[in-house]
Amino acid sequence: MRRILFLLIFGLAGLGVLTSLGVWQMQRLAWKQGILAEIEARIAADAVDLPETVMEADDKYLPVTLFGDMKPEEIHVLVSVKQVGAGYRIIQPFSTAGRIILVDRGFVPTTAKQADRVTGPMEVSGNLHWPDEIDSYTPVPDIDGNIWFARDVPTLAAALATEPVLLIARSKTDPDITPLPVDTAGIPNDHLQYAITWFGLALVWAAMTGYFLWRNRAPSEREEQ
């Protein structure tokens, strides 16, 4: 009986832990969905002027419309687009109201890397963003070949002599550049998969507990059957 009691207590404790982890992940899922809904609403809000003082904590995803002058200097950030393939994000300095910021105009295929772009006076609409794309595996930029591997805003700003502010265009600024506007698709939300994993493990644990309890029944019970 002591063996059976130990297995029962151990099994129920493990089942409780695994189930609680699944419930916690479901709670995290609801929290994350709320965060994503807030971000999507902010992205789709009415555009405003560029704030006089831009702060990442306050202005991330802020929709902005700018009037100004697109400068000819370019940085090419290597990227891959689904169903299209490899290409580059075209990032250029944009002068507006006495300030110069970065504009991510969008995507061009690798064959258009050296193509001429429309520059000069124009209107650009999009969202301010500070992408988090750098990790320990990110290669060092090939400055001579103008091939970059991440949009690190301070580094790009230093290279193009602009403010450390990046506007990712939603409007089309060149017939041959396809905008890649900000969205929430790249924000991880794996809590449902985690919850399914924990609940699945809880079911396996319950089955294994039941099996071991059955195997360790008292000898008299087995003989009666």
UniProtKB/TrEMBL annotation:
Q: What family name appears in the similarity comment? A: Belongs to the SURF1 family.
Instruction: Kindly provide the name given to this protein in its UniProt entry.
Output: SURF1-like protein
Q: Which Pfam families match?
A: SURF1
Q: Which InterPro entries match?
A: Surf1/Shy1 (IPR002994), Surf1/Surf4 (IPR045214)
Q: Which PROSITE patterns match?
A: SURF1
Query: What is one GO cellular-component annotation here?
Result: plasma membrane
Name residues in a coiled coil.
none
Taxonomically, the superkingdom here is Bacteria
Taxonomic source organism: Ruegeria conchae
The protein's location, in the record's own words, is: Cell membrane; Membrane
